[in-house]
Description:
The protein is an alpha/beta fold. The chain has helices spanning 18-26, 45-51, 62-66, 82-92, 101-108, 124-137, 194-197, 200-212, 224-227, 290-309, 311-318, 325-336, 364-377, 391-405, 429-433, 467-477, and strands spanning 6-10, 30-34, 55-57, 70-73, 97-100, 114-119, 143-145, 149-150, 157-158, 164-168, 183-186, 216-220, 236-241, 252-258, 264-270, 273-277, 341-342, 346-351, 354-359, 382-386, 410-413, 439-442, 458-462.
Amino acid sequence: MSEAYSVYMSGICGSGMKPLALLGSKMGYKIFGSDKALLNINHPLHRIFKTYHIEAFGDPDLNLLEQSDFYVYSSAIDVDHIERKKAIELQNQNKIQIFHRMDFLNYLLRNHEIQLVVAGTHGKTSTTSMIGWILRNLCLNPTIIVGGTPKYLPHSFQMGNGHIAVYESDESDGSFLKSIAKYRLILNIDQDHLNYYGSFENLIKSFYKFSLDCDVCVLNNDDLELAQFPKKSDKTYIAYGTHLPPQKFYRYFFLGNLASNNVLKFQIYKDDNLFYDSYNEGIHFKFPGSHFLKNGLGAIALVFSLLLEYPSLSIRSLGNEVTHRSSINSLIRILNRFPGVERRMDYLGKINGIDVYDDYGHHPNEILNVLLALREKYNNRIAIVFQPHRYTRTKELAREFAKVLEYADDVYLLPLYAADEKPISGVTSELIGRFVRKNVHYIENKDYDNIFFQNYDCVVFMGAGDISQQIREYIITKRPLQNVL
């Protein structure tokens, strides 16, 4: 039936749009789309879209839009955008059906009986990728949709057998409340997107509402706001954290303990009674960062909650019910083989003997976690090259950014990446830099030569804009200086 429908997508290169376009094409829809990023003839998505028989271009094509059955947009596409305005006109004439990106995701997954979703201010992509990895290695053949690029899914998605799906949500525009997933994991709540919510209190209320409309909700009990969520007696709550809660809030609690060798061991309590101890088993990855280990514990807790409700799936994939010790140990061993995600503590190699990392972090807590992980790994000087992302976020969190950037020895600030936002007077990278009490250097895009003639152990490039593309292109130009592992 899908072969009868054509879909036109505005902003098709967006992190949330691209995997939907690829999945839609794989499911038999004819996909068209536009994105100004495709004005760059060397953009890698030109080749990928062509492989999936997707017609995508830099400039809008209203003729193709008029011939399409569905129109899909994200919140990055303003209501005055030429394509969205045309689509509204066509919808008023009953000639097209309009979907927000999240509505289209629900439409594509409408026949998936089991859906799992990950929410939180940060860590969603890596944690969703971990869950997909576990389910995939359990031979459950899930549909997987992520906003980044797991190293086992180069195109950010997998089309499964139509039974199980896992994806990450987007709280930035409130669209995560449209999720129909019955198994939900919430990682954290931090101040972000307050231009949309108006206040931190409204953001918390939205996450709380998100926690209610599901069968099972897995919460990070170390997060202050999540720990204070009122619990409904008719719901199943499972939680994880590094401290036992004082009251019997949770059906199961995963208690983590970070060992000195960067291994996270854990115990599981059922109704305050210990029934599992990992002992010599533990979560460990080949990439640094204790926050990844904790997110991994959340991933195991969500998969555990699913297999708890579907014992037949557990017996088929693990040989026992998931509460059996051998089953939990198997989940740990599967997760420990997780290869990682591009742009999440992604090691790129060496330039002039300096280790180079790339990370998507664009929120103060994300930056802090990365710098703390690097401090665990390196004894000497660390530098960060940071590209602030969005005027609104920079205005709201300038002091917080400055505070965490000081965990590096030297700070390099690139020009602010607007992400389609309109400029705000006085909001630039300098707004952050004036609060940093360390060495601050303001540099232009791709002007990195001087950095790699300093005495650094490592340099991490961070931001959600085009900084990743910049450093990767730069490394190619500096190939003679580089020693890539």
